[in-house]
Structures are given as structure tokens and as C-alpha cells.
Amino acid sequence: MSLPNTHFGPERLGAMLSEPRRIFFAGIGGVSMCSLAHISHLRGHAVSGYDRTASPLTRQLEELGIPVWYDADASHVRDAELLVYTVAIPASLPEYAEAVRRGIPVVSRADYLGYVMTGYRKRIGVSGTHGKSTTTAMLEQIFRLAGLDPTVSCGAPLKDAGGRCDRIGGEEHFIFEACEYMDSFLDFYPTDVIVLNIELDHLDYFRGIEQIEASFGAFMARTGSGGRVFLNLGDDNVMRAAQGYPGTAVTFGVENDRADYKADEITFTHGMASFTLFRHGEALCRIHLRVPGAHNICDALAASAAAVENGVDPRAVAEALAGFEGASRRMDRTGVTPEGAAVYDDYAHHPTEIHSTIQAAAGMDFKRVVLVFQPHTYSRTKALFGDFAAALADPALTEVILTDIYPARETDTRGMSSELLADAVRVRGGRCRALHSLPEIADALRAAYGKDDMILVMGAGDVNALCPLLL
User: Fold this and answer.
1) Which is nearest to 2 in space by CA: 441, 407, 303, 439?
2) Residues 323-360 as b or e (16 or more Cβ within 10 Å = b)
3) Do 287 and 274 contact (CB within 8 A), yes or no?
4) What are the 10-residue block averages of pLDDT along the chain, 471 residues in total?
5) Where do the H-state alpha helices sit in 197-235?
6) Separation CA 150–CA 158 (nearest Å)
């Protein structure tokens, strides 16, 4: 089980960090943790950290002069005055255990992020089961090109920020991705909240959809009566969660005449959508997207509504989105195999995301589409087993290859395996097999797929290491 979040709050943390401190980040390579380490470094704190593997994100921190260790050892916190941890680490991690033993304050990532954001006047939180990173990245591009100089913390590397997961700007706007896992977002202090969608997920923590809706409702309420929420009118779970919200509610919807902001007159070119943005029935602008898939319409609509309500001219919104190339690992074209197959990398790991991404791929004019999918956690695979099997049996796919399940924070297999999932996909009419090694998968793909084919590499774990093997 993951470590719990702390709840020190900004006043207590502010008192602890009123002067430069030596701060150790346990799990510093995480997409949010690396942003917090960067911000802390810029604020004059002496930052260091541990992660189990090197990555482009940890190398970026090292280039800033931040020491990062890849072998866990209690001596790393010898001089630390504060330890910030991600709930994904085990309590047995030597640095964490040593900090607790010595009485060094330990603070969860969410608690620390909540403290950091209170230094900004307008705080826009992007929440939802799907689409958070893309919508956050869209807002970053819109606000930046509109000259508003936002500070941003995203759950995926931003292509226009040199592959960083953050952008350090002014102190007026803080745009952040708000994750619901372990109720982490209940330590945040938003003034605006976007709720894209609500579905069953993270069932190693949540008991069911009612608890998830209650958590989202509590997150919205953190804006207070003077705050504002942007709600997907087409999602019944979202609208139930928002009941009783004390602030201002702004709705958005795709082809929904009841919504305050509507995307309509939708067309597609090579899988990429264009639509007209309406506010209260008035056409504001025509938006052309460069990222494929119908699901990006909703993300772009939510970002547009939030931007316009924060004073951005609709023409500036359209111009920014016309140049938006997506967040990293979201239908990200990584190259072409020597045999001529296009390789795409995607982070989807929930059945709804898988379905949306497959539909996007199907509209991109490739002759064949093969999917390599890495299931993420045994608990998610078990809880949503039938939905995974149905999504992976999509007739738009020529073939599905499953890797071993990525355990992340889990050790118990819960009776799950990729072989069981492959059997279930075949029962539903899909062509599916499970292979255990990335080199084996790369050899099989390069032997079977070439010119005019797409190889779609998908999952939230380490399956993207397949891409360089293919290229």
C-alpha cells in the first residue's frame, strides 16, 4: 500500500521554509516531483534526491547542479532538513526510514505542492480521470502565447519547454495538473477547477464511483464560494459530483446546446479535428487541432473555456491551439522503423483512454495498426478486466501484443497475468498474444510490419523503452 499524504498545510510549511533549507526529494524523477525540485532550487534551497532509475527528467535536474542518487542509502539524508516524498515509494526506502528515525520532517508531494501554489494569485487545477496532461499542456501554450507568463506543473513533459514537466513564469497564474489518487488533490488550493470526466480508476484506493465523485466534489469545494469550476456537461458523474458547489459553475460540452461553451461544426482531416467554439450560442472562433482524435476536442474545449473566462482573447486561443503538438507520450510520433512503419508512443492505461486512442489511430490513414500494450498494475487490470478486453478487441487493430503487467507500487499479482488478458481478448474476436521481453517484441514487429503501417506503443509504465529498440 502507498504511503499516506501528510497535511501540514501552507502556513506550517511556510514557517519551516522561511529561509533556505536542505531538501531531499525521495522519488525525484517523478513528473511532479522533478517540478517541485526545480522550483525549490530556484527559490534558493539546497536540493538533492533519489530515484531508482536515471531518466531525461533526472538528467535535467543534474544539469542544474542538483545531486541525484540512483542507489538508495540512508547516508543521502545525513544533512537533510526536510524530506519530500511521493506516495509511490515504500516506507522501507532507506532515505525515508532514516528521516523518520532521526525526526527529520517528512512531507508528501501533494502537501508540498499545495504550499508552493499558494504563492500565486490565480491557481487553475486540471482534474479528471483522463486528459489532464493534454489539457494542462494546452493551457500552458495558450497562456504563454497570450503573454500571461504562467507557471505550470504538468503530468507529462512539455514539448515547448525543452522536455521539462514544468514552466517557471510569473506569480500571477499557476496552472497545475490535479491527480485524484490517494485524494492528493485535497491538499491543493485552486481558485479555478476544470473537471474533464470522472470514471472508475485507482481501485486500490477508492472503493467505488460514489467515493470518487465525493472526492472530486471536495476538490471543487476547495475553491470556496468565490471560486469557479469548469464542468463537462456531458459527463453525468461530473455533474453529480458538482452538486452543492458554492461558487460559479461554467459548463462545456461537445455539440451540447445546453453548455455555456460548446464545440460544434466539427470536421476531421487525417484524424485531426476542427471545430467552432461557441459561448452562449455566439461563435467566438474556429479552432484547428494538430493532435489526432475526437477525445482532444473535449480537452481543447475545456482549455478554451478556462482561458476565455480568464481574459484571453478567443483569437489568441485559436492561434495557440493551431500550433499545439501535444504533450509527450500522447500519440507522440517517435520515428520510423528501418522497415518503414511509423512508431507512436502513448500513455493510455485505462480502457476509455485505450478506446479513444485506438479510434484516433484508426482515423490516421494507416494500412495496418498494431498495438503493443503494457497493463498497469494488477489491481487496475483485475478491477477493469472486462473493459480492457473489450477495448483491446477493437476491430480497427490488426494485432495486439501484451507485455507483462507493470506492477508499479504493487507486489501481489491478484491472480492476474497478460496471458489471461490475451485469452479474454481472443474470446471477443481480437487477435492478441502475450510476449515477455521488449527485444522479442521488437523483433516480431520489425519482421511483420513496414511501410504504411503504425506501431502504437501504449502504457503508463516503462513500455516506451521499446521505441528505441524499434528505431
Assistant:
1) 407
2) ebebbbbbbbebeebeeebbbbbbbbbbbbbbbbbbbb
3) yes
4) 88 96 96 94 97 93 97 97 95 97 97 96 97 96 97 89 86 96 95 96 90 98 97 98 97 98 96 97 97 95 98 98 88 95 95 94 95 96 96 98 92 92 98 96 97 96 94 93
5) 209-221
6) 13
116 is written with which cell numbers?
508552493
* Fold (topology level) of 119-322: UDP-N-acetylmuramoyl-L-alanine:D-glutamate ligase (3.40.1190)
Instruction: Give me the residue spans of the domains in the chain.
Output: 9-114, 119-322, 332-470
- Fold assignment, 9-114: Rossmann fold (3.40.50)
Identify which of 307, 38, 303 has the alpha carbon closest to the alpha carbon of residue 148. Answer: 307
The three three-digit cell numbers of residue 212, written as one number? 470518487
Q: Is 373 exposed, middle or buried (0-12, 13-18, 19+ CB in 10 A)?
A: buried
Q: Cα 463–464–466 angle (5° rounding)?
A: 80
Least Cα distance to 241 among 259, 215, 202 occurs for: 215
Q: For 332-470, which CATH class?
A: alpha beta
